[in-house]
Specification:
Layout (H helix, E strand, L loop, with lengths): L1 H14 L11 H5 L4 E9 L2 E9 L2 H4 L4 H4 L4 E9 L8 H15 L3 E7 L3 H9 L3 E6 L11 E5 L3 E4 L4 E4 L4 E2 L2 E2 L14 E4 L4
Parallel strand pairs: 3-4
Antiparallel strand pairs: 1-2, 1-11, 2-3, 4-6, 5-6, 7-8, 9-10
Amino acid sequence: MPLLAEVLAEQRAETHYPVMWPLPGPVESFLVRRGELAAWVAELGGRVVGHVAVSDPGDELGPLWAPATGGAPLGEVSVLFVGSAARGSGVGGLLLDTAVAWIRERGLAPVLDVAEVNDRALAVYRHRGWEEVTRTRLSWLPDDAGDLILMALPSVRPDASVGQDRPVADGVHDGRRHSFMPDPATMAVPEVVRSLAGD
């Protein structure tokens, strides 16, 4: 846990994630959320460089995703961050794909929330096919964070370039195909994506 806390603190200045800093409580309470279902870390060269967790979104936000998920049970990507040294290497995408695969294997609908101020993360999610469901303001959100944007990942999207449906995980967005696989010749690929929940 201390290594994850160090990576979280190190990347915060560049990403503004989490939006409340310093955290109002112990960092462990941020990293391991109430309702957490699964969690993973990515390691490069034996060092922890990223983390993702999936949680049950609970009653506060859960109903707000219903218009996009048809009331299906939800799996929320509740924590996702990558250390600065690993940013752009594909680690974040690999962690996100790991969480989404776990969510879908259990028949849950993938959802997440992101503060409007986290424009880089928001752009990545949109690029990867996540769609905005709604925006809300929560009392704990700092004024300069903007709205909390709730997003869902549809199970299939039409791919106009080939005239058929393709899974979003294959990189379909706005009718264009995109490759999210890192090029091993130019990018560091994690040796390990390790489950923290023993799953």
